[in-house]
Amino acid sequence: xxxxxxxxxxxxxxxxxxxxxxxxxxxxxxxxxxxxxxxxxxxxxxxxxxxxxxxxxxxxxxxxxxxxxxxxxxxxxxxxxxxxxxxxxxxxxxxxxxxxxxxxxxxxxxxxxxxxxxxxxxxxxxxxxxxxxxx
Length: 135
Description:
CATH superfamily: DsrEFH-like
CATH class: Alpha Beta
Order of helices and strands: EHEEHEEEHE
Structural class: alpha/beta
CATH topology: Hypothetical Protein Ychn, Chain: A
Number of domains: 1
Strand content: 15-25%
Helix content: 10-25%
C-alpha cells in the first residue's frame, strides 16, 4: 500500500457562524506539521475566509484570519481560489490576504501562494488529489 501524498482541503463555508472554517484551518496546520503535501481550495462562501481586514467585533468572535499568514511557514504554497466564487461575491484577488511562501532555491524569495483559477481548472486540480476533505 502506497503512502498518501496529496491532501486537498476544500473550504466552502463563511468563516464565522459555524466551526467549519476554524476546524479546517487547524486540521490543515496539523497535517502540514506532519509534512503532508497540503493544498487548499476556497469556493462559494469559503472565499470570505481569506478576505483581508476582517472585523469581527460586532459578532463577538475572535478574528482568526491572521492565522492564514502562517501557512507559508508550514510549506503550504498551493492555495486555490475559484474565480467564479469571487466574481459572484464582487471580490477580486486584491480583496484577499497577501499569502506568501519563501522559495529556498531562490534565496528565500517570497512568492504568492494564492492562485485564482476557474471552476474547470479547479476540477482538474481536485482530480489530481489523493485525498479531498470538504469543510
